[in-house]
Amino acid sequence: MIVYQFLFVCLAQLSKTSVASKYIQELKQKTEKTNIQNMVATDQVQTDQQTPSPLVRVEAGEKSILIKVFNASSCSCRGLLVFILEAFEEVGLDVLHARVSCSNGFLLEAVGVLKKEAETVDAQKVEAAVLQAIQSWSEINQ
């Protein structure tokens, strides 16, 4: 009898863990969708007749910088990542963490630090370099 009670308690705990795990996954997905929607809603979009320009947001911290690039267009963004990474290299930015998705447009979220520790992070300089990279990429792909 005690064994059955123990098994029942274990199964009940396992069920609760499974439900909690599913709930956490759902929250992660909702958060990610909300972040993308907020990014689209708050940034101004400069659109071209044929291809809309990706949205770029750069946020500087004390020693790091967060870069987000989003393009909801269904057009191919083949090669865009290479241009953006080259722009990071030009401004002396080392990427510590990056997440890239090409399934429903293009999404890049990257965290980087400057190669030279003495320098301060300049968000405008990084944003200008990324925008220039996107412009160069779009000129080649037209």
TrEMBL record:
Gene Ontology CC, one term: nucleus
Domain Plant bHLH transcription factor ACT-like: 56-135
Cellular location(s): Nucleus
Keywords: DNA-binding, Nucleus, Signal
InterPro entries: bHLH-TF_ACT-like_plant, TF_AMS/ICE1/BHLH6-like
Pfam family, one: bHLH-TF_ACT-like_plant
Name of the protein: Plant bHLH transcription factor ACT-like domain-containing protein
Organism annotation: Acer yangbiense
Taxonomic lineage of the native organism: Eukaryota, Viridiplantae, Streptophyta, Embryophyta, Tracheophyta
